[in-house]
Amino acid sequence: MTIKTQDEIRSMEKVCRLAAETLQHVAKFVRPGVTTNELDQIVYDYTLSHEAKPAPLNYHGYPKSICTSVNHCICHGVPDDTPLKDGDIVNIDVTTYKYGFHGDTSATVFVGSVSDLAKRITETAENAMYRGIEAIAPHGTTGDIGFAINKYVTRKGFSVVKEIGGHGIGRNFHEDPFVPSFGRKGKGDPLRPWGTITVEPMINENDKDIVEFAIPNSSVKYYETQDRTLSAQFEHTVLITDVGYEILTQI
Ligand code: MF3
Ligand code: CO
Ligand code: CO
């Protein structure tokens, strides 16, 4: 985990606010009939008009400016020309680069009116993210975060994805440590004041295997639930302080 100076924290605050504003902006365009490529273009234009860069674009060969993960897609879904349908849920994951730093945030958004199950899994994913964030303490561990997330999600009858999770963030998009959505209190990597991490639990309907797919010309993979049941996710970038934490991608 890289420890930031006061100046670096100010840069992280600014890029994270822009990432949050970008996510809020693009979410307004979600409705039945819109394609994920159109959402991608909206983020590309908005980001460039704010003198920033969409970090995913060309990241390890990734071809787009955002990830759009629809229904049974767990994460890293690649925008395409398929129109969103009434009843879909779509996670939009925005990562903005400016001032030499990255801000990373995502939300699962409803397309039209969705099923009660879709509402429940989405609400569980959002609450799970906040449970994880609330477990952050200046000299705690990544296991504290994972424990809190997994406990909450299991109680709601869903399951967490273990293979993929949060990460350190700063000058690099992905830094140490890995921030799991499961774990044991006091285990894992230490959290340190003035480090920045993401908390981004992926929640599945079922405890079945996940399937990994290649993205052409990229070393980034995308993931789906094996039985094509629903998956939802939320993400914030968080600063660890000397007394607790601050959510940087909250407007
Ligand atoms: N934003 C994703 C995360 O939360 C990473 C996307 S990598 C990409 O870590 F290449 F697919 F953009
Ligand atoms: Co992230
Ligand atoms: Co992200």
Give short descriptive properties of this protein.
alpha+beta, binds cobalt (II) ion, Creatine Amidinohydrolase, 251 residues
Explain this structure:
Helix 1 (6-27) crosses helix 2 (36-49). Strands 1, 2, 4 and 5 form a 4-stranded antiparallel β-sheet that branches. The chain has helices at residues 6-27, 36-49, 116-134, 142-155; strands spanning 53-54, 66-70, 73-75, 89-98, 101-110, 159-160, 166-168, 175-179, 196-199, 202-204, 210-214, 221-225, 231-233, 236-240, 245-247. It has one domain (6-247): Creatine Amidinohydrolase, CATH 3.90.230.10. The chain contains 4 helices and 15 strands. One cobalt (II) ion is lined by residues 93, 95, 104, 106, 235.
The count of helical stretches stands at 4
What is the CATH superfamily label? Creatinase/methionine aminopeptidase superfamily
- Strand content range: 25-35%
Could you estimate the helical fraction of the residues in percent?
A: 25-40%
Rg over alpha carbons: 17 Å
Distance between the termini: 25 Å
Main beta sheet strand tally, sense and closure: 4 strands, antiparallel
* Average pLDDT figure: 98
Indicate the CATH architecture.
Alpha-Beta Complex
- Secondary-structure-derived class: alpha+beta
CATH C-level:
Alpha Beta
Order of secondary-structure elements: HHEEEEEHHEEEEEEEEEE
CATH topology: Creatine Amidinohydrolase
Tally of distinct domains = 1
Q: Count the beta strands.
A: 15
Bound molecules: 2-amino-4-trifluoromethylsulfanyl-butyric acid, cobalt (II) ion
> Which descriptor suits the 3D outline?
globular
Spans of at least 5 consecutive residues whose pLDDT stays below 50 are: none
